[in-house]
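pipeline/complex-builder :: batch 7 item 3
reading input block
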Amino acid sequence: MFKLNNRDCEWQVGLTVKELLELKNYTYPRIVVLVNAEVIPEENYASTIIFDGDNVEAIHLMAGG
Amino acid sequence: MDLKNDQAGHKFLKEYNYDLGDLDRGYTNRTLYINVGTHEIKEKPVTPLMKDKFIGGKGFGLYYLWQAVTEKTKWNDPENEIIISSGPVGGITQYPGSGKSLVVTLSPLTNMPIDSNAGGHFGPFLKFAGFDALELQGKADQDVIIVINGNKGTITIEEAPAGAVDTHILGEQLTEKYAENEEDKRNIAVISTGSAAEHTNIGLLNFTFYDVRRKGIRLKQAGRGGIGTVFRDKRIKAVVIKFAGVKGNQNHPADQLTLNKTGIKLHKEIHDLDNVQNKMRKIGTANIIEVMDKYDLLPTHNYKFGAHKNTFKISSEVFISKVTQNYPDGCWHGCSMACAKAADHFELKTGPYKGQKVTIDGPEYENAAGLGSNCGIFDPDAILELNFYCDTYGIDTISYATLTAFVMECYENGILNKERTGGLELNFGNIEANFELIHQMAKGVGFGKIAGMGIRKMKAYFEKEFGADPKFLFDIGMEQKGLEFSEYLPKESLAQQGGYGLTNKGPQHDEAWLIFMDMVNNQIPTFEDKAEALHYYPMFRTWFGLNGLCKLPWNDIAPANNKFTDEPAKIPEHVQNYVDIFNAVTGKTIDKHELIRQSERVYNFQRIFNIRMGYGKRVHDKLPYRAMGPVTVEEYLSRQERYDQQLAEFLGYDTTGKSAEEKIKVMREYRESQYEKLTDAVYKRRGWTMDGVPMVEKLREIEMDLPELIEVVKKHV
């Protein structure tokens, strides 16, 4: 189990940030991802592995109406 | 006086000359009053109190409206006013999004003040012509046109010519008529509405300006709340303003250098980042159609669902191919965000203008979502044409779309049938019936006349005439305070329910749009967090309306380093930009905290205004349940996994063996109680009683303890 935006999320071995965003259908272009409070650059999404117990934030900077 | 007018045979009902005056630090320090019934025209001074407490824009509008009406005044009484004002920052050309006009009147939908804003050139031209606001009062006994010449210092009330009312014709005719030549057309701005505004409660005001590149008029709208209906009730056909000579220092700002520097900074940001962020220059607000669908937030079939398998047919890419002309397109000088879009040479397929090739402004997100998915329509050409007719007929696309979606659900539930609709088969997705409905509204005939009353009045009518269940109508009729919801699905975000429900004018998203912060990012998990957001954002966004500013350059573009700031959702650098440009124009020295207090004064004034008119209390902040959760089994089942999980997680409710109806009941009790708790928290944060009345202490704290406000408040605490 790990936290995604402060909600429990099922953990899978080897899960990367890129795969997590795809899994959650997070397609919005202005998302900031932090793993354990560290900002992950977009070019590192595919190589950044999420570990059991990590705290992941995927903050959508969505302007809206 | 303009000879062309005399030659055209127009009768001048009143002529008035004025000194052009000077603009100083964003203010002309006077306003213009016109009574179309008595033909009185006068100038009024802008007082220090107006500038200190109300700033400008909708602040001035509310201030004047308060004085014009009593608690008994109805929208169609002669004393009701339409007030149009820009604001002290409005009209600058250095910072994007500075051409807004704010319009205030008593609404035929809500019976209390409505405010709505529009882009275009009218607001800045009005100020450059010498006036910080225009008050229109009275009721003419014949159609009139008001003409303001801001270079000559003349104002006339003229008999309106017979003929076109619809804006795409009237706006063009008036631009042609009052311009000296082709070059002069850019100096003309017109406000008008259309034929449907005469027969419905959802009339809008079109703000026409001349597009030099297209050599034709463009339309922006003050859409919400039926302002166009009031306009035509006053028998005003149009207001024409002419001003030549817009310059970058027209506002005579206190600090031109800071204005220039702040503007250049944002221009560079937009240039560098827009294409990798929201693509506002490329497609405008329509960029979020597919985003809303992906996140299950796109209103579909009268807000039942948040996505549809056919959304790809109306995605932003589809509209890019149909709409844009490969250049950014703005509605006021110097706006590099340039989000206005248009489809040129669009051949109409229906209605009185069938076969005409027209320019259609838009679609914006609201139009695509409302006229499209919410009504089950996934045909981009149909959406564009409905968009066109809404504009030229002078009806609000949001109200039209939302009430049509409501009517469609009523039709599919048997509340309506062909007999009751005069033959219209108003199922979701029926494009033909939708067109017939809008054309009926323009003529004031058939079921279009009934639908044009708006959802609130339709609900009463359907109950009385057809014996419909009022509870079901209340649940699915997406209006609150009498105003139709704008086009976002709030049912999975408690904060956005507050963003719609705990508003002054009704469920329009221009106060707070918190869906992602709440539902996706989970950044405001507690009631207190949500209440703080429902204090800050409505106050911050109110400020745009005091100053003649557009919201979009605030957060539809963000600095590259914004993600590393402590409050990225607020876009702190842009907040400081607004502080800087306000101070640069006015010479004042506000900070970001005083910016919020400026808004708080006007926001609380508007709340008390509502209370004075018999509304504006807790009971009026109640939402239809469709905005809060699943009303029907069909809705529950569409998200069964999510809802079952929530019932288990939040309530420890075992859903095993339970029917959808049982689960809906439990879910409803829970969600309604959540909304009540949120309401408590928000009222507390805003300094209101638990009945939603601003407390005297709060008014003192924000230095808004005006005697007339205390008098109203004391009756209700």
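note: The CA atoms of residues 2 and 9 of chain A lie 5 Å apart.
queue -> next item
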